[in-house]
Amino acid sequence: MCGIAGLIHRGKSSNVGSELQGMLQALKHRGEDSTGYALYGDTDGKNFIMRFKVGENVGEGSSSVMEDVSVYDERKKIVDETLAEMGAKVVKEERTLPYSLRYEIDYDTKDLLDFSQRIESIPGVEILSMGKSLEVIKDLGNAKMVCDRYSLDKVVGTHAIGHARMATESGVDIKSAHPFWGYPFSDVSVVHNGQLTNYWNNRRVLENKGMRFMSECDSELIAVYIAEKMRHGATLEEGMKESLTGLDGVFTYFVATKDSLGMAKDTMAAKPLVLYESDDLVAMGSEEIAIRSVLPQEIDTYDPFDGEVKVWQI
Amino acid sequence: MANLKTVSKKSKAQSMGMHTEVLTGRTQQKFFNPDEAENFYYFGTYDVDFNKRTELDVKDMTAPEANKEIDNLMSQGYGTIVIKNPQGKHSLGVGILNKLNLIFEGSLGYFGMGSCDGPIVRINGRVGWSCAENLMAGKVVIEKNAGSCFGAAIRGGDLICKGSVGARTGIDMKGGTIIIGGDAGAFTGFMMQRGRIIILGDVGINLGDSMYDGTIFVGGEIGSYGSDAVDSELTSNDQDWLKRKLKVAEIGENFDVSKMKKIVAGKKLWNYDNLEPTEKKGAI
User: Fold this and answer.
1) What pLDDT does residue B29 have?
2) Distance CA A279, CA A134 (A)
3) Which residues in A lie closer than 8 A to residue B126 (C-beta atoms)?
4) Cα–Cα dist A119/A123, whole Å
């Protein structure tokens, strides 16, 4: 199953961490193997924020292999050395959990491809997100557990997307959890509900074009597919519209960038989505109860139609 | 085409393309004897008084708790129940096998009013997926929009959405009438086997895909026809029926039904010879 939720405040900021937690927790019956947040927080926009992991959560229910915690420190040390070699200065460092880190980096580049490739060439290291506003936080457990673990309830920002996952196509681990970063684009993230049936064909084509995949989760394909389209000049909306024919299967997915949020629904309309739209807020989720967690009053909502793509700006 | 008032029931139904089969099945002959009407009893039904009215706030209730309380109120003879604060909860109002006036002051989530037989329901809000699935009889009116699979597998009754609906409306329906005031999504009438769907607005792709029987009326544009769905002549009988149905549904008062398109199954894909349960009840 899986559940997705997203919201965008237009013209103001809000406590998006807490709001998304409420929406995803309302969807926990759709899956609580893992939960992920892509939060677009208020920042000064000067530094990159890199969320990355140096290992997996090997707690109850995990499909990952236990590692000695000491390897996490070794990997972190290599990351630090690599960043220094590239001239990237770590301004602030947080280590929420032994395997999960957040760096604020002073680094002047518009091309994150080389940067990302060098960091991820370190075995066991994966960048979860890179951007000047975006932070992807994902881990095992339901929305509240992940929110509490990473203290997300106080995050203030303009928009956010998230995912409550029931693992079906790949393992119960962080690397297969959503959201996926739109590697190598700054501030692009994707969540998806559905199944893609031409995953391997598309993956082979995209890998031949130099794109990278970190998991075997079919949803990752959407992030890479959209990113590849944008890399060749397409707008977010154009890339999403192309995906309706380029991707085969059943899907509803959200894509977020630094200043926008979009949704796409496949031509079979086989996956649910309920949408609320007003002048100052758009909220959407797999079920209306997700929207009700932030808008308990009576509101007008609707289901987008088959093959529909919509994009909103902050 | 003959006027509705002057033709027999059988030819009326046949002339409107509702069903043409000859009902000779063993089930009908063996199990449904009109003399046994007094033994036809539904478990869980009550004698209710429509003038006895109450309100129920379900804000802090789970769906099972709310449904159990509705049942409890019916057992006390309440025939009009107003539900406050449904707040998009799933599976509210399911399994009501009673005559009942039920009013929801707000929106329902998935599977609202599923498997019902008899109630008159008004939902002053929106409904999620699979509203009124398996409805046997009664009337359900939704004032706003509805999600996908609206009226899936209904066998009787009237299901009315004044707004727009998602995909697969009337999927697998076996009787009854679905009326949509706005637009409908893809695969409307997918595998429908009987009954009628009326859409005043536009409809998406693959309309009536793999339909066995039944009729779809569309007032707006059609995205595309599904396999086995074909146009048919809109007769005067059809127009009479459409006018009457829209009037009863309090929808499309000034709608010009003469311009509607009528879509039916292009092939005979069915082979039924048994009465549906609602027809059996009617026979009794």
Assistant:
1) 43
2) 23
3) 288, 300-302
4) 9
Annotation marks residue A2 as catalytic: yes
d(CA A158, CA A14): 6
Residues of B in contact with A250 (CB under 8 A): none
Encode pLDDT of B163-222 as tens digits.
Answer: 999 999 999 999 999 999 999 999 999 999 999 999 999 999 999 999 999 999 999 999
Q: Regarding beta strands B49-57 and A274-277, do their DSSP bridges make them parallel or antiparallel, or are they unpaired?
A: unpaired
Asked if B214 and B113 sit in the same domain, the reply is no
Residues of the domain holding B119: 48-123
Mean pLDDT of chain A: 92
- What domains are there in chain A, each with its CATH number? 3-313 (3.60.20.10)
Closest residue, chain A, to B129 (C-alpha): A272
B133 interfaces chain A, CB cutoff of 8 Å? no
Are B55 and B116 in the same domain?
Answer: yes
Residue B154 clears pLDDT 70, i.e. is over it: yes
Same domain (yes/no): B115, B152: no
Question: Chain B contact for A296, CB < 8 A?
Answer: yes
Residues ≥6 apart with Cβ < 8 Å to B110: A287, B90, B91, B128, B129, B130, B147
Size of interface A-B (CB pairs under 8 A): 74
pTM of the model: 0.84
B-chain CB neighbours of A283 within 8 Å are none
Q: For residue A250, give both structure tokens.
A: 């059943």
pLDDT level of residue B28 (50, 70, 90 thresholds):
very low
**A245 near B CB under 8 A:** no
pLDDT tens digits, A280-303: 999 999 999 999 999 988 888 999
The residue of chain A with its CA nearest to that of B202 is A305
- Partner residue facing B125 (CB), from A267, A298, A307: A298
Q: Does B162 touch chain A (CB under 8 A)?
A: no
ipTM given for this complex: 0.78
CA dist list (Å): A98 to A55, A123, A141, B43 = 8, 16, 17, 59
